[in-house]
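[Q] Does anyone have a clean structure-token version of this?
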Amino acid sequence: MKKIYLSLTFIWAIIMSQTLVAQTPVKFEIKHFLSQAPFALNTVAQNNFQQDFTVTRLQYYISEIAITHDMGQVTPINDYWILVNADTQTVVDLGSHDIQQVEAISFHVGVDTANNHKDPALYPVSHPLGPKAPSMHWGWAAGYRFLAMEGNAGANVSLYQLHALGDKNYFQVEVQNPWILATANELKISLNADYTRALENIDVSSGVIVHGDYGAAQQALSNFQALVFSPATSNTSISDQLEAPVFSLYPNPATEGQVTIEIAEALAAYGVVVNDLVGRQVYQTQMEAGQSELSFRVENAGMYLVTLIKDGKAVSTKKLVVK
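[A] Here you go.
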């Protein structure tokens, strides 16, 4: 009986160690822009009406994050809220998860209905939903400000304020094929946010002030849903993102080390480099311009990083698991 107990304990230890190895720390990054320039307060930008505006305050909530990965699996990030401040760096820790290849990330702009009408005093000041100065809470009935965007606009430099709220405006955002930076220690999901598009189709030429769930405030939240966010790249310029290839690996996990890389709209010539998690190169080749598929073999089981190279620079990386 004692031998059986020890054997079962040993087997359980192996299972637990394999489970722990599969868990990867995941981070979520939002890079802030005004068109192609990094975001900065009091910087002149234009909306699609060619109306000049500046931003003196830009804060918004993100709730109900979910990651789609590894052939359609969905991992929700429960009970987690982000208060984004566009003039500070946004990189948050989403915990450790069994995620190898990310296909999409989704989230809502605002605060979920179950928590939107709670008292901020229930939370510490350090909590995203806790009391803030300036306030991000409209009142018990209306709930939190999902978005607070303020500044000056138009030839006469008129004040504008968009404080958007309301359960009916709790819109979901989904970004397919976000930029992924995978290292031996973490997986980072990175998006660009272009805030010139937050004011798309909103006339700010003579100033507009809407505090509520209607009109220009509602339009701004709709713009956040459809226009503001896009996959980031390894570079800081949004104009460069068209150069970043979208590629997939299949099967992943790979059986007996055989894997195919497929590049969408492969217009450039890409190098392919495969490294293990300690940085040792196990495979390298060069694809021709227009070549969209390549099959190769990795001999040993384990976890690897597959990177596309263009003009000597890494432009996209994905994890590969070999069984």
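[Q] Thanks! Anything notable?
[A] The longest helix spans residues 2-22.
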